[in-house]
Amino acid sequence: MRITEQSERKDNVVLSVEHVKKKIGRKWIIQDVTFDVQEGEIFGFLGPNGAGKTTTIRMLVDLIKPTSGVIKVCGFNVNRDQEKALQYIGSIVENPEVYTYLTGWENLEHFARMQPGVDRNRIQEVVDTVRMQQRIHDKVSTYSLGMRQRLGIAQALLGRPKLLILDEPTNGLDPKGIKEMREFIRRLADEGLAVFVSSHLLSEIQLLCDRVAIISRGKVLAVGKVNELVQQNAKYVVWNVAPWEKGRAVLEKQSDVEIVNHPELVLDDSIIAGMGEHALVTRMNEDRIGSLVTQLVHLGIEVSGVHNINPTLEQLFLKMTEGEIIE
Amino acid sequence: MSSLIPLVKNETIKIIKKKRFYVILLILLVLVPIFTYAQMRSAEHSREKFNGDWRLETQQQITDNENSLGSDRVPDEWKKFRKIIVQQLQYYLDHDVNPKEPNGVTFTREFMNNSVSLFIPLLIMAIASDIVSSERTTGTIKMLLTRPVKRWKVLLSKLITLIMFTSLIVLSTFVITYAISGLVFGYKGFDIPVFTGFQISGSDVDMSAVHAVPQWEYILMQSGLIWFVSLTVAILAFMVSVLVRSTAASIVVMMAALIAGSILTNMAAAWNSAKYLFMVNLQLTDYLSGTPAPIEGMNLTFSLIVLSIWAIAAIIVSFAVFTKRDILN
């Protein structure tokens, strides 16, 4: 009984990465990476620049051979059975590099010739999917970055893959483009595709992914549901009060509120820039906000703003590595 | 899984759409008229001097060369070379054949002969040096190698395409040169006799094997040799293109090798082992016309073997590196 259960579970695993390590020169770029990606889920791969995200992705598509460990796609070893494994993968590694001297359509024809069972109709289908009918016969050199990104995705979808690998898919897109891209990825996953997305932005992963693996310095620190991982960490609350001195004194007296003296160390620059000069950053449970506001107002202190702030990626790391320094 | 033909089609489309081949044709269309004009002026000049009598002109050439043999200032190497030239010119004179009969075919033969070690290789490099390195420079190599096709098939399709275009370049050089020079010198001359089979031993020419062949036959043999040299150069440039990431670096490496070859040819007579370098073996056509080889001990078979070994080694290196390498950039 248990055996059948396990094999059923395995059927849904599209990508499995087991203890993959990579040494370049004398340095272990990837020290130990293990995770599974299931059918129909959007899996985030989160880590700061230089953590080994792109190196890992390159190993997933056989651009780099791992020093040890096994990567399987739909049961086929990517580094041994390339022809079989790679036909289940559509990918964009870093930027969508296509031939700029060809038209979008010619590019798709080019890649269609490299895989079995992709005909004219299929090309037209993916063009419709990424909504590029208008410009598909123009030279790629005239495309905007967003259009190249879409052409890259069209190219990745050509072979009807089971796994779509996207490396920082929202990089360089404007806010509207980012939103469209998210909706598009969600739609693909709803159709049963497994999507693997890398990013260095926690917010991006929170908005898009079902599960996430967090990587730092070549090691996977945690794999799990995105919200669970985020909620394990205390939140920050920013207070705007006047007079500032008095407010600070009140907050300091609370036993369950911790004043953060150097907010620049724990918060994003963009948040610090937006919160004004006389803001107090505290670390506390958000349930206490209501009673504290009442207390402050009672004492004649004006409260002009209270903001909840999610921890940054760096914060998540600090917590996970227990103070180990992030480079 | 997928066969090679669609891959070769891909590569061919890319070369054509990149307009590389048109640039090559354009270069030919600009340069050949210039050389034709230069040849026309020099023909006019000697016609004025010798009243159109080629025997007089050839005799004068022989006398000039013989005179220089007496001079102490002329190095021994050159003397040897000139002695051989004199013997050959005398042979043409004795058999009443004009070695420089002005017509489109002779011009084409001479032009091809002079282009084999530098000009044609340069045209080939316009395609060969770019064919792999450009995919790396632009990053498209990532798209190419993440498709369900084995890496050796991708590389082989590029090599096949390169061989096709190399052949096409040699053919176009011939056709364009003949078409343009024929306008000036006339299109006749395929059946005039040309002597071949000069065996050079020391400073003497062994005439026993010399025989006349119609010029078309000579050109056919010459073209075969030029094609072989071109393939070798193309394959070597191909290897450099696999090894080096930037197209510019790849062209510079090959150019340096070729230019070093033409410099060595002029000064390496004393350094015997230089004959194993590919770049001093490119003038295969000289063996046909009987021009002495730059280094003792070189002959047609030797050069063919040296070039073949270099080409085979280059193919092995290209495939070994390309199929194993991590794509990191």
TrEMBL record, chain A:
PROSITE patterns: ABC_TRANSPORTER_1, ABC_TRANSPORTER_2
A single MF term (Gene Ontology): ATP binding
UniProt keywords, alphabetically: ATP-binding, Nucleotide-binding, Transport
Positions of the ABC transporter domain: 15-242
Gene3D superfamilies: P-loop containing nucleotide triphosphate hydrolases
Signal peptide boundaries: none
Keyword Nucleotide-binding among UniProt keywords: yes
Family matches, as Pfam families: ABC_tran (PF00005)
SMART domains: AAA
Family stated for the protein in its record: Belongs to the ABC transporter superfamily.
PANTHER family per UniProt: ABC TRANSPORTER, ATP-BINDING PROTEIN
Protein name, per record: ABC transporter
TrEMBL record, chain B:
Keywords from the UniProt entry: Membrane, Transmembrane, Transmembrane helix
Superkingdom of the organism of origin: Bacteria
Family matches, as Pfam families: ABC2_membrane_2
Cellular component annotations (GO), alphabetically ordered: plasma membrane
GO molecular function, one term: ABC-type transporter activity
Protein's UniProt name: ABC transporter
Residue stretches spanning the membrane: 21-40, 116-134, 155-180, 225-244, 251-271, 300-322
